[in-house]
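To: structure desk
From: M.T.
Subject: fold request, one chain
Message: Could you run this one when you get a chance? Sequence is below, nothing fancy, just the single chain.
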Amino acid sequence: MQGYALGDFVGRSGIEKQYESYLCGVKGSQVVIKNNLEQIQRIESEIDPVIGATVVLTLDLELQKFIENAFSDLNGAVGVVDLRSGGILAMVSQPDFDPEIFSREMEREQWSALINDPQKPLQNKFLQGIYSPGSVFKIIMALTGLQENIISPASVVHCTGSQNFYGRDFHCWNLGGHGTMTIYSALQNSCNIFFYNLGKRLDIDTIANYARMMGLGSSSGLDMPNENSGLVPSSGWKMKTLKQRWFPGETISVAIGHGSLNVTPVQLLKMIATVALRGRMPKLHLLQKIEKQDLKLKR
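Reply: Done. Structure tokens follow.
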């Protein structure tokens, strides 16, 4: 890397990588005259090193610690956002690792254990973990149906626990059925049957458009590197990648957040925040301010 020498510390991931240009400071230098015994005779010129800037984050330290402790034995991710500012108050990915191990020589066995751990401690699951959103996606379906005038607040579907679509039985999580559902009660009870029926009346490309408008399938814009974009499937995507046409039965699965639909936790956080803000999408960020030290390190 330009400006770095062998043995220098450099940010390789996360905030350290994102703001390395501020954190690194400025190296000092000396031009000295030595004799044939390598003894310094005089200093011709000297530039004092300058300490790097302080990067102040939006994280709430006590909240971060609380979530880390509560989540210590689990595998997954947690994110908390301040709706007023878009600042991330907590960002947890578990299991994690001790970053100090990268500041010293690492044994091959230790590195192998890290990269082959099935729980992926080196992965920031909040930004890089890919998951089916499941029932959270029903919010997108409700928005799509209402905006496209496919349903109204008065629309009802009767849930008996299962229903046949395209020659296949699809089941609700409540095998006994929920009875008559409106959009409100369907969301409250997470009724699969209501959203299966809505998915049958919508095409995948319309659903995909609304999902992307709500921030799914693309980077959240959070100031962190190596974020995964996830996947919002469409008929064009399937034809391009698999050389196959999209089948209506696949839309039924997407309608409850399954199928080939994949998202990251940070995208879901942004989506839910947008709903909470009545359609105003927040600009997620971790950086609060950069405080330049302007301090020279004396030799």
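Reply (cont.): Residues 58-126 form one domain. Let me know if you need anything else for the meeting.
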